[in-house]
Amino acid sequence: MDRHLIAQGAEGKVFLGKLFGEDVVIKERIARKYRHPLLDAKIRQKRILQETRNMGKARKEGVPIPAVLFVDAANCVIFMEKITPGITVKEFLLKAQDVSKEIMIDLAHKIGRNIALLHNIQCIQGDLTTSNMMIKPFVSLGAELNDSNDIIQEILKNKDVGTVYMIDFGLSFISNLPEDMAVDLYVLERAIGSLHPECSSLFEDILEGYKQNCTKANINLTRLSQVRLRGRKRLAFG
Amino acid sequence: MLALGIEGSANKISVGIVDEKGNILANPRKTYNGPPGSGFLPKETAEHHRANILGLIDEALAEANITMDNIGLICYTKGPGMANPLSVGALVARTLSQMFEIPIIGVNHCVAHIEMGRLVTGAENPTVLYVSGGNSQVIAYNEGKYRIFGETIDIAVGNCLDRFARILKIPNEPAPGYNIEQLAKKGTNFIELPYSVKGMDVSFSGLLSHIEKIADKYPPEDLCFSLQETAFAMLVETAERAMAHCNSNEVLIVGGVGCNLRLQKMVQEMLEERGGMLHAMDERYCIDNGAMIAYTGLIQFLSSGGMKLNDCIFTQRFRTDEVDVTWRNK
Ligand SMILES: Nc1ncnc2c1ncn2[C@@H]1O[C@H](COP(=O)(O)OP(=O)(O)OP(=O)(O)O)[C@@H](O)[C@H]1O
Ligand SMILES: [Mg+2]
């Protein structure tokens, strides 16, 4: 089958390919030589199940998530809808220049809303980073978007970022514990602080969107401040 | 210019002498181990350091064939670490600085591990896997700081290994982690243990409490083997996640657990599949030592100057990302 590699993540290779003539994204979890074969098999099987199950579940709730088209569980391969035109939030934040406050807040609120909707159905994403969110802009009539720079320009032209998709549910799981939801947010806070230190208010704005949409926002955010404190205390020894 | 560095943040006390190119003229070290079945306690460790530090300074000067008059900078570990042991190094450093009128600078221990690693291996801009008795972090340089991308959300991997060694009453000499590594080589059966990765963060406390509970049901060799396989797979996975996130292609392993050859091999295998490169060190530099403090203090001093004596405190908590990395230019 005709396909080419677009990303090599932590455990998967992600390809662009065709299924029934349509462009699709193919995510394959390859066996990793470095881990013990029993552990490796267990991890891959567990994650592909979690990923497909939770993607479907969350998509039904209205969270923008690529549709899963076909699953080959034995070989740990998922075929899914391609987000196109699309760019990861990471690439957008690293490459876009002079992003207006308006766009940043729109982006943040949409991310916050997505996480809230996930948490409302007790779905913990488990790996919230800016690599695992994608922007699909509203495309003006006749515009041709050939590469990520074109996509960035298209986003900046509008007052609205477009649709923000959540991808990569390999570490997702179901839990109703405030602790798990708080850690989910904490992982994102740290990912933003380390890769995008200049976007200082992004996380605060995300929490704003989260608060407006999450039914248990108060409890989870109180817990988040405890998780943060623990994080600071922990680093005691050399 | 020559710098003298004192490290004593945990159970090792060491004095290193380096020049600004990073040539190591001397780096003697002494290790305190508690009795079998117990760890090292702050008070006893500090006593050990007090008893040995002056001798180590003489030894280092003699080995480098110099006197204090040749030293242009005194460096010491400001933190993070255990308070009592840290206080010994800070006190001796301040005294030397005043007695011989030499500038002084306090150094972040974690940053020193990274800089020593870059120096010894020649790694330019690696993703750093920092694994020791007190720390498990995945670090990368970004915008003037060493930023922590992932870390343990409870105990450090070295702490997990050490505590399990105590349960099995494995000797503390030469190091509990080393003895686990040797036993693990003879293990053949993989026992399933809790595997906990949260994004780029890891958790070891569930793993430790589970393996404690089953410790008397399996041979020690298989337990050590499975513990290493599981804990290290978690570390390698988060390191790889951070690499994918930062588009980086080299890994530097630092910290005491970084001496573990099984861990090095696993990282190597992960990198082969990505076409990346591993930078690892042997125990001379992986394990806490004075030269890393001297070298880091020196490059820091040359780029942004020394510290006022009043600021030469020590602190148990001192995050890697608090330090302004003024000596790197991108
Ligand atoms: N549906 C999609 N449409 C377009 N691009 C995608 C899609 N899914 C993934 N990608 C691209 O591939 C990259 C990696 O995908 P993903 O995050 O799912 O894999 P991964 O990080 O390897 O997964 P894991 O963290 O589970 O190992 C994304 O950052 C994105 O650039
Ligand atoms: Mg991903």
UniProtKB/TrEMBL annotation, chain A:
Signal peptide: none annotated. Its EC number is 2.7.11.1. Keywords: ATP-binding, Kinase, Nucleotide-binding, Serine/threonine-protein kinase, Transferase, tRNA processing. One of its GO terms (molecular function) is ATP binding. It is an enzyme of class 2 (transferase). It catalyses: L-threonyl-[protein] + ATP = O-phospho-L-threonyl-[protein] + ADP + H(+); L-seryl-[protein] + ATP = O-phospho-L-seryl-[protein] + ADP + H(+). Residues 1-238 form the Protein kinase domain. InterPro entries: Bud32, Kinase-like_dom_sf, Prot_kinase_dom, Ser-Thr/Tyr_kinase_cat_dom. GO terms for biological process: tRNA processing; tRNA threonylcarbamoyladenosine metabolic process. It holds the Pfam family PK_Tyr_Ser-Thr. PROSITE patterns: PROTEIN_KINASE_DOM (PS50011). One of its GO terms (cellular component) is nucleus. Belongs to the protein kinase superfamily. BUD32 family. NCBIfam families: arch_bud32 (TIGR03724). This is non-specific serine/threonine protein kinase.
TrEMBL record, chain B:
A divalent metal cation binds at residues 109, 113, 130, 288. The keyword Nucleus applies. InterPro entries: ATPase_NBD, Gcp-like_dom, KAE1/TsaD, Kae1_archaea_euk. Its cofactor is a divalent metal cation. Its EC number is 2.3.1.234. It is an enzyme of class 2 (transferase). Keywords: Acyltransferase, Cytoplasm, Metal-binding, Nucleus, Transferase, tRNA processing. Substrate binds at residues 130-134, 162, 177, 181, 260. The keyword Acyltransferase applies. GO terms for molecular function: metal ion binding; tRNA N(6)-L-threonylcarbamoyladenine synthase activity. NCBIfam families: arch_KAE1, gcp_kae1. This is N(6)-L-threonylcarbamoyladenine synthase. It comes from Blepharisma stoltei.
